[in-house]
Design goal:
alpha/beta; Rossmann fold; 8 strands; 34% helix; 33% strand
Length: 245
Amino acid sequence: MNTHLSLIWSARLLAIALAAGSAAAQADDSAGVQAVAPAASAPKKLPRTAGEPVAVAIYEFRSSVGELAARGSTDMFITALMHNGGFRVVERSQLEQGLMQEKQLNAQGLTTGTVAQKQLRGAQYIFEGTISEANAAESERSGGIGLAGVTVTGDKSHDTIAIDVRIVDAATGDILDAVTLRRSVKSDGASVSGVGNFLRAAMERRGVNSTYVPDVDVAQQRKQSLDKALRGMIEDAVAQLASRF
């Protein structure tokens, strides 16, 4: 009977511990990824052919943030440029993996059509992008409380990541303008420990056998998605780039 009662108490306290850890670590996604407004500057209007999308190329983003791969960031940027509607994106980052191979096959007479004889469209501007971790663990907070052998702790921190996109004149190589965006990415965590000690003490005071009371430690860590923050920054950067033309 005492063993059965011990297990019931253990299950109840475990549920309480899990709820406490989850509540302490809960954070809203929209609040976790926040924009840090860049310094205001008047956009420079760059020349373009009236009535036509601006022909642009991007080779590959550079990334100094290990969790954000350059290849995936480049694909995000190309997708955002296409969705904007103001740009004609010409392929450059994957030429050797697809387009040039197809042209070579056609030049050798292995495929139908005349794609080998046609020139690639030239880009009027080249976009060069860099992802940087402006400040890792820019701010941190932590705290804890202990009561009757149970300890509950929590912590919060946020990092700042940034992207820079330069606009290069494809004809002259001149860097004509640049766009910089920063965002704060929050993370938080919580832990509960010492539940078994509390339960054993309470049961012993009631004269209940506490031999089979387990120790319970619960920890939860949550970090907002860097991919989500990056995609949002890229979409904002593309909107700013579009305003330059």
